[in-house]
Amino acid sequence: FSPLSQGLFAGAMLSSGCTWGGSNATLAAGEAIGLQVQEALGAANLKAMRDVPADRIIDIQQENQVGVSVQGFRASGVIDGYFMPASQMEILQAGGNSDVPVIAHYNAHESNTALTRATTVAEYENYAHQMYGAAADDFLALYPVTSDADVWAQSRAAATDGRLAASARNCAMLQAEYNESPVFISEFGRKHPYSADAQQYIADQNIETVGAYHTGDIPYWFGTQDVFNMFNITRDWTPYDREMSLAMTNALIALAETGSPATDQHPWPAWSADNQVRMYWGDTMEVRPLNTAGMEFLATHQAAPVELPPEPPRVGPRD
C-alpha cells in the first residue's frame, strides 16, 4: 500500500487472513502512544529509544495469545503522510497500491469463538442458540454436528470462516474490484506430527487439542521443519510432511517466477467470483470450494456474547 514500495514487489504471500481495507491510526494518535512507550521505558530522547533492547519493548506490549493476557501498549500503523499517505481503502480506490499477484493465506485452526470451547453436541448447540438466537437453526444447518466427534472440527471451521477465511476472501474481492492481478486463496490444515514425549518440551501448546495453529505453516513454506528438533525431538516428520513442504515451497517459487503459485504437480486456480476456491494444504493437497454460504451467514449475523465457564488452569511451564 505504501507508494514507496512501488516496483519493489513481483508478488505477495499474505499470511493469517490478509486484512485489506483497514484504517490506520492518525499520526497524532501514533505519536501519543510513542510518548507513552518512551515514558514507560524511561528513555530520555529518541536516541535513547533506539538503544532500548528489543526484549524490553516486547515486555511492555499488549499480548493476548497462547493463553495469556498481558495489559500493555499496542501500536498500529499510522497515516504519516509519507510512508502511508492515506487509509488502505483510499489508496486502493485511487489505484495507489502495488498491483501484483497475491496469495491470501490462513491456517485452519488459529481462530476461536465461544463455540470452540464446546466438546459435546449439547454444548455446541447450546452456544449456537445463545449466539444466534432465532437464526441458530440456520447456523446449525451450515455447520452441523451429529456426534461429539464432529464438534472440534465444525466449531473451528465456523470460527475460521467468520474471521481469517472471510478476511482472505475480502482481499480477493478487493483485488478483483480495484486491481488487475490475480489472487489465490490458501488454507493450511495440517496438525504437526508430534513425538510421543513432545509435551514436556512445549510450553505454549496442548498437543492433544492443538490443530493447525498460528505460524504452524511456516516450516512447510520454507522447508525449516528440522529446526523444531534442533534441541529436543518434538516432531516426528513423515515423508508426507516433507512432500507437502516441498510442494508449498515450489508454489512460492512459482509465484515469484510466473505470477501464479500453480505447478504441474499441484494446479491452483485463481479465485474469482465465479470460482470461489482455495488450495488446501492438510492431510490432502487439493483445491476445495470456500464455504461462501457459511461466510455470508456469519458476516450478516452478529454473534451475541456467551457466558462461558472458566477455563481450567494451564498445566505445565510457560516461557
Secondary structure elements and their pairing?
Blueprint: E1 12-14, E2 25-26, H1 27-41, H2 46-50, H3 54-59, E3 78-79, H4 88-93, E4 102-107, H5 121-132, H6 136-142, H7 148-162, H8 164-178, E5 183-188, H9 218-222, H10 239-258, E6 277-281, E7 285-289, H11 292-300
Parallel strand pairs: 1-4, 2-3, 4-5, 5-6
Antiparallel strand pairs: 6-7
Helix pairs in contact: 5-6, 7-8
Summarize the structure.
With 319 residues, this protein is an alpha/beta fold. Helices cover 36% and strands 9% of the residues.
Helix content: 25-40%
Shape: globular
Q: Average pLDDT value? A: 92
Radius of gyration, in Å, reads 21 Å
Tell me what portion of residues adopts beta-strand conformation.
Answer: 5-15%
Sheet of most strands: 5 strands, mixed
- Strands in their spatial order, largest beta sheet: 1-4-5-6-7
Query: Distance between the terminal alpha carbons, to the nearest Å?
Result: 35 Å
Characteristic terms for this protein:
single chain; 319 residues; alpha/beta; five-stranded mixed β-sheet; two-stranded parallel sheet
Report on this model:
It contains 11 helices and 7 strands. The protein is of the alpha/beta class and 319 residues long. The chain is globular, with a radius of gyration of 21 Å. The model has no long low-confidence stretch (mean pLDDT 92). The longest helix has 20 residues, at 239-258. It has a 5-stranded mixed beta sheet with strand order 1-4-5-6-7, with helices on both faces. It has a two-stranded parallel ribbon with strand order 2-3. Strand 6 and strand 7 form a beta hairpin.
